[in-house]
Amino acid sequence: MAHCEQVPAAVRTVDTVLARMRVLDATLPARDGVAVFNRVYLTVTEAVDRHIDGGRFPDAGSAIALDVRFAQRYLSAVDTLEDGRRPPACWRPLFQFRRHPGVRPLQFALAGINAHIGHDLALAVVDTCRTLGCEPVDLEDEFDRVGDLLVTLEERVREELMPGPDLLQIADPLTHLLGSWSLDRARDATWAAARALWALRRLPDVAGEFTDRLDAAVGFAGRMLLTPLPD
């Protein structure tokens, strides 16, 4: 396996993305859908940072680069919206429904995870490969370790935000809605998409069309996750 080149100074730290997420956490209303996802993602990014500092990634430099490129895509979508511009299709459902009273916190959290994993992570892998001069296979360990952290967090989020006692959950429409989405499946699809995009990098028109279709498909799944439900 080839080694990635030295990480450029611009992507050597996660401090800037953590600082931005903490500002959002402090300023957004707690029930706002973006705030719900942001709290989840802040927890993930802090966990990744601790794992990097603890030497739990084989290539810390590549892990930092991937983590920062990944986070920047979410923060860029938020900034795009705040600037009055049109964000990527994958993020639009969360931004549009963020204050809807019929959408529950767990739906907001998973819709954000869907957008970020399903679309942003594939593009972040390609961004990182271009930056570091490596291939997707060189980032597979880092990709898998970040994904494992996300799966663990998703399980905890479902437990904390799923309303009602276990015996009643089977009758809750939220149970049926969210049972149709899996982070494991989304992660597998994302890795395949990242490899495809990398293979298409010398065909910009085809790569652009592939990216647009990926964005739209992930946005459609997010819209389904945010279906308003009765209390």
Word description of this protein:
This protein has 231 residues and is an all-alpha fold. 70% of the residues lie in helices and 0% in strands. The protein has 10 helices and no strands. Helix 2 crosses helix 6 and helix 5 packs parallel to helix 9. The protein is globular. The model has no long low-confidence stretch (mean pLDDT 87).
Summarize this, please?
Pfam families: DUF5995. With 231 residues, the chain is mainly α.
Characteristic key phrases:
mainly alpha; single chain; 10 helices; 70% helix; 0% strand; 231 residues; globular
Q: Supply Rg.
A: 17 Å
Number of helices: 10
Biggest beta sheet summary: none
Mean pLDDT: 87
Strand content: under 5%
Tell me the overall shape.
Answer: globular
Structural class: mainly alpha
According to DSSP, the number of beta strands is 0
| Helix-strand string | HHHHHHHHHH
List the uncertain runs.
Answer: none
How far the N terminus sits from the C terminus, by CA atoms, comes to 53 Å
Helix content: over 70%
